[in-house]
Amino acid sequence: MHFLLTNDDGIDAPGLAALEKAVRLIPKATLSIVAPASEQSMCGHRITTHSPLKVDSRGDNRWAVHGTPADCVRIGLFALDLKPDWVLSGINAGGNLGQDIMISGTCAAAREATYHQVKAMAFSHYLIRGLAVDWHRVSQWSAELFKNLQSQALGQGDYWCANFPHHPPGELAMPELAHCQPAKSPLLVSYEKHPDGGYLYNASYGDRPRDPGSDVDVCFGGGISVCRLGL
Q1: Helices 105-115 and 69-78, axial angle in degrees (round to 10)
Q2: Nearest Cα to 52, choosing from 72, 67, 37?
Q3: I need a labelling partner for 104 at 20 to 30 A (CA). Which of 47, 131, 162, 226 fits?
Q4: Is the pTM of this model over 0.85?
């Protein structure tokens, strides 16, 4: 199988390196990386259409695109003429749960691939402030998770969205996987006046509502949430 890897944290992000390591654990896998040249977090499904997209070669089968994650997928498929069996997006440094899915560039890349009938998964890692991320461990979990999900049929227009929980670094078996639905409760939104003028977004991600049985509930509870999402 050939994999096209992308993300929204940028081509130099540790989560993308962890995803690359995960793919290299899959027997006979080959890969190409087409990722943003700089961080594009929370850009949603934005596409560049009215200006040229600069693409820098970063070595064999590796390109940095001066655009969004969805741009990267389009460039990979239609400019670089890649023919991936799967598009894998992530591993995002931060959860993409519930309402995040619509905002996330990570999920947008998987969604864009799905529009073009390429199977796709988005991987994200919920973060607890002050707790280090064990990216090596997450690589192993990602490879194991892919093997689990690739054998499950995806309907036309469907893609996978997975979120890893945040546990302290160290040896730990892969947490229990739970198939669920995205939380429907909105993100908590608040603003405070900024000394320089205007209003600054101010909300605690970890205090968001935990709809019972939702992706937020599963992930915050220490499990891996897996949602089958449709266009």
Answers
A1: 30
A2: 67
A3: 131
A4: yes
Buried/exposed 193-213: b ≥16 CB within 10 Å, e otherwise:
eeeeeeeeeeeebeebebbee
Query: What is the C-alpha separation between 123 and 126, in angstroms, rounded?
Result: 10
Q: Can the peptide bond before residue 91 be classed as cis, meaning omega within 30 degrees of 0?
A: yes
Give all domains of the chain, ordered by start, each with its CATH number: 2-230 (3.40.1210.10)
Query: For residue 221, which of 152, 163, 159, 156 has the smallest C-alpha distance?
Result: 163
Q: Of the candidates 118, 164, 159, which has an alpha carbon nearest to the alpha carbon of residue 15?
A: 164
Cβ count near 85 (within 10 Å): 13
Structure tokens at 219: 């992930």
Nearest to 15 by CA among 121, 129, 136, 103: 136
Cβ-count burial 19-42 (b if 16+ within 10 Å, e if not): bbbbbeebeebebbbbbbbebbbe
Q: Hey, is 57 helix, strand or coil?
A: strand
